[in-house]
Design goal:
Blueprint: E1 5-6, H1 9-12, E2 17-22, H2 28-36, E3 40-44, E4 51-58, E5 64-69, H3 81-91, E6 102-108, H4 112-123, E7 129-134, H5 136-141, E8 144-146, H6 148-155, E9 159-161, H7 170-183, E10 188-189, H8 204-221, E11 222-225, H9 230-239, H10 245-262, H11 265-285, H12 290-307, H13 310-326, H14 328-335, H15 337-342, H16 350-355, H17 360-366, H18 373-382, H19 392-402, E12 407-408, E13 413-414, H20 415-440, H21 462-496, H22 513-525, H23 532-538, H24 547-558, H25 562-565, H26 569-576, H27 579-591, H28 596-606, H29 609-637
Parallel strand pairs: 2-5, 2-6, 6-7, 7-9
Antiparallel strand pairs: 1-10, 3-4, 4-5, 8-11, 12-13
Helix pairs in contact: 4-8, 6-8, 10-13, 10-20, 11-12, 12-21, 12-24, 13-21, 17-28, 18-20, 19-20, 19-26, 19-27, 20-27, 21-24, 22-23, 23-24, 27-29, 28-29
């Protein structure tokens, strides 16, 4: 083969690349975590916005190895965008990126009939393959006996039994990876962008041949097929029951939002007191002047106003990770298929929409699992209506300022958590309503049935949950330390200059660039009850939703109420805003367009400026209309 390069570190200094490939729900992510631990990062594939995890580990021979966790796929005959990414990575179709040196194909030992077809397809590429026979403990518990040696002989590839969540078999897998890399030291690999072996998409005839070959292999290697998980069948009999399933799902979601307040209260108070101590110490140690104002009013008041909400975001992600790792997430999609179908959405849309509770960016990217383009576009257009974690600081701040911390229903339900659940429910209902309109106008078409594999229930790995939470905390704090930090310095400058003229009667910020902008926007936002301070906060809030909270902290710290801010921003808002204004702002954030990063992802995912602009226009109109109705209706009910 021409234009080839040596791919081993002995020749190039570039670490060999190992790709984890497999069907969805086979344990790839657990194996990835077992191999890399915390030495991992999340990035996007070149030119597309599907997330990939990249990690590194040292092999037993001391070689630094790069590991890539590819999106789950059932076949290289890709039918959705994320499956196309997996296909293109293993074929080396990305520019400046060679195919993986070794592919570790992860297969669920309890369902080999479904998983082995992908192994056979990968073998056709002529690349080194290792089969990680995962979930062996579950297979043995069900009486399923697989002869690994016979399976290896039948497939012609090394087979390593593993239990990824317990790290069982990881040492053996590492040894096999070392042997595979040693065997390739004199081998040549295709250049980046070169497809392997003249690959062509498997035809229907090829797929039938694969199926027959799988049956032959199973006859040689499967000693006992075992029995289905009795526990899974019994749990599903209850949780998927038409009368029990949906109420239980809504109960889980309701408890999740109650926990966001209840569990996070103590650590939030600790962070708040710590920031107050830091702010007071900095204020006492520094002389009056620009440096003191920048540090206390700009950085600490601004960034600190956002960092305080880290515990709530971690609680939310804890529940999402638990739903994913136990196997209940797929059941939730199944349960909501009928509800989604009522508004024209595909059942698979639930997973992107639920992911959007964390952030609309991965939620929009997750829509790549939906094969039909019209269904995928409809899901993308409504995903930002789901209440992302960036809205959480805004909701929490306003709820803390205007909703009393007491219980209802005989002390069983926290009022603040109930209001939070109502806001999330409003986002869900508005998304479904928008989907109903879109699917009957712009995205007309027959609804496709939902076909998906329901994995067995499994106990989550505490280590994997912890790694997931640490990753989310790192992302949140990195964002606070970069994007929000930079914006707060800029906002402090705009709120401090030019200085107030001699004899000025109002707060200094009134005469600054930021004050001028706020007062210029105030007439446009006055019909929905927004103050000029809110107008200022909405502008940097376009970069990231949580920046609006940091901006309010900085604006009020620079205003005449700055002394009160050392106690609580919520207290300042409660004294400065009316209740209709607070409710109007909540309504605005339920519908308002997402941050710039979300809009840019929409543009990339749809490959069109048009759909991004449509999203901005329709969501802005919804936000303004909802805020207008909320402000005037609440003003009328509360007597002005």
């Amino acid at each position: 083969m021409s234009d080839t390069v040596l791919s081993t570190p002995a020749f190039t200094g570039i670490p060999p690349r190992i790709a984890l490939v497999g069907n969805p729900n086979c344990g790839k992510t657990a194996l990835f975590n077992a191999l890399t631990g915390a030495r991992q990062k999340v990035a996007n594939y070149p030119g597309v916005t599907v997330e990939r995890k990249i990690g590194e580990f040292l092999s037993p021979a001391g070689t630094r190895v790069q590991l890539v966790d590819l999106p789950g796929t059932y076949s290289l005959r890709a039918r959705s965008p994320d499956e196309e990414v997996t296909r293109d990575v293993v074929l080396g179709r990305f520019q400046h990126e060679a195919p993986p040196d070794v592919m570790v194909c992860v297969a669920d030992a309890t369902n080999l009939r479904l998983h082995l077809r992908l192994v056979l397809e990968l073998k056709k590429l002529g690349r080194p393959i290792i089969l990680a026979l995962n979930m062996m403990d579950v297979a043995e518990a069900r009486g399923c006996r697989v002869d690994a040696a016979a399976l290896s002989a039948a497939l012609g590839v090394p087979v390593v039994p593993t239990v990824a969540i317990k790290r069982t078999g990881v040492v053996g897998l590492l040894d096999q990876i070392d042997r595979s890399m040693i065997a390739m030291t004199a081998a040549l690999a295709p250049s980046p962008g070169t497809s392997s072996c003249g690959w062509s998409e498997p035809s229907a005839l090829d797929l039938r041949a694969y199926h027959q070959e799988v049956e032959t292999i199973l006859a040689a290697a499967l000693r006992d097929a075992g029995r289905p998980s009795l526990a899974t069948r019994r749990i599903d009999a209850a949780l998927l029951h038409p009368a029990i399933g949906l109420p239980f799902l809504f109960l889980v979601l309701f408890l999740m939002f109650q926990a966001v307040f209840a569990w996070a209260a103590v650590p939030m108070d600790m962070i708040d007191k710590g920031l107050g101590w830091v702010q007071a110490g900095a204020g006492a140690a520094l002389p009056d002047g620009l440096l003191k104002s920048l540090l206390t009013d700009g950085i600490i008041a601004g960034v600190g106003s956002v960092v305080i909400f880290l515990p709530q975001i971690l609680v939310l992600f804890f529940f999402i990770l638990m739903l994913e790792s136990t196997g209940y997430m797929a059941r939730a999609a199944f349960l909501l298929d009928r509800l989604m179908g009522g508004v024209g959405l595909h059942g698979r849309a639930f997973i992107p929409l639920l992911s959007s509770f964390a952030c609309a960016v991965p939620g929009i990217m997750a829509a790549r699992t939906i094969e039909n383009r019209a269904d995928r576009l409809a899901t993308i257009m409504i995903a930002p209506l789901m209440t992302c974690s960036a809205r959480l600081p805004v909701y929490t701040l306003i709820i803390a300022a205007f909703v009393p911390d007491r219980t209802v229903a005989g002390g069983m339900i926290g009022l603040q958590g109930l209001v939070m659940f109502t806001l999330y429910a409003a986002g869900i209902l508005s998304a479904l309503a928008a989907a109903f309109v879109l699917k009957r106008t712009i995205f007309k078409g027959a609804r496709e049935p939902l076909l998906m594999e329901l994995p067995s229930y499994r106990l989550p790995s505490p280590r994997d949950i912890l790694l997931g939470l640490l990753e989310r905390a790192r992302i949140f704090l990195a964002r606070a330390g970069t994007v929000i930090f930079s914006i707060m310095i800029l906002l402090w400058f705009l709120g401090s200059f030019p200085a107030a003229p001699d004899g000025a009667t109002g707060p200094a910020i009134d005469y600054s660039f930021a004050g001028m902008l706020g007062h210029a926007l105030a007439p446009l936002l006055a019909p929905i009850g927004f103050t000029w301070q809110i107008a200022i906060a909405l502008v940097p809030g376009m970069a990231a939703r949580e920046v609006a909270v940091a901006a309010l902290g900085t604006v009020y710290a620079l205003s005449e109420t700055g002394d009160a801010l050392s106690g609580s921003l919520a207290g300042v808002l409660a004294a400065d805003w009316s209740l209709p204004t607070a409710l109007s702002l909540l309504a605005w954030f339920v519908f308002a367009p997402q941050c710039v990063s979300t809009l840019s992802v929409v543009k990339r995912e749809t490959n069109s400026w048009f759909w991004m602009l449509v999203m901005i226009v329709y969501m802005t109109a919804l936000a303004y209309g909802a805020a207008f109705v909320t402000f005037h209706l609440s003003s009328a009910l509360l007597g002005g």
